[in-house]
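Course assignment 3, question 2. Fill in each field.
Student: A.L.
Task: Predict the tertiary structure for the chain below.
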Amino acid sequence: EIAKEEKVPKSVRDKEEVYTKIAVIFMVMLIISLVFFYFFIKSMNKFVYNGIRFEKQKNGNTIFYVGQIPLKNSLPLTVYFRENPRKLEGIKSAKIILTEEVALAFEPEVFQCENTIVAGTTLSQYLSKGFDFKPYAASTNKTEAETNNIRYARCGPFDSNSVLLFRHGNETIIREDNNCYILEFTNCEIMNVTEKFMMDLHRDINA
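Answer field:
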């Protein structure tokens, strides 16, 4: 004889349905929480500072703060900061007004810092592509300038063009002296002072 199929008691079926519903609700809530957490973490990496949208991105072991600089009558200029721009606020600066041609001058000892070339290249591209300035390499050492076939520049009332002078100092600060902007830094914080100058130039041009 075929064994009769045992009927599951209604109370047991009800419990199973309740457990199933609880499991489904738990899975749905877990998925919603994970999605919310993902977008929350992603939103924490985005911020607006001084009218510029930044996003924190990681490329290998290097963290960049990628900014979109709004430009007049042009697409935004993308910049890749090494430092968090919000942490540059503490660097003292000066109002920046530049001539069309701008000398980028480096005192010899600053080349001991590994990011000196990166800083000079980043600032040069920012000046030319972002604001149509005409930057050029210069040296504060006349003999070195002649040897390397570059222009000689120094601070003071000697040059009709603006001079951006990079040099070591006792603090990281931007000073102004007769149309010469001294980007002074300590502990090889050359990227900090460079990016601070870039932020303040954008601020003063759009003031």
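Instructor remarks: The chain has a mean pLDDT of 85. DSSP finds four helices and ten strands in the chain.
Grade: pending
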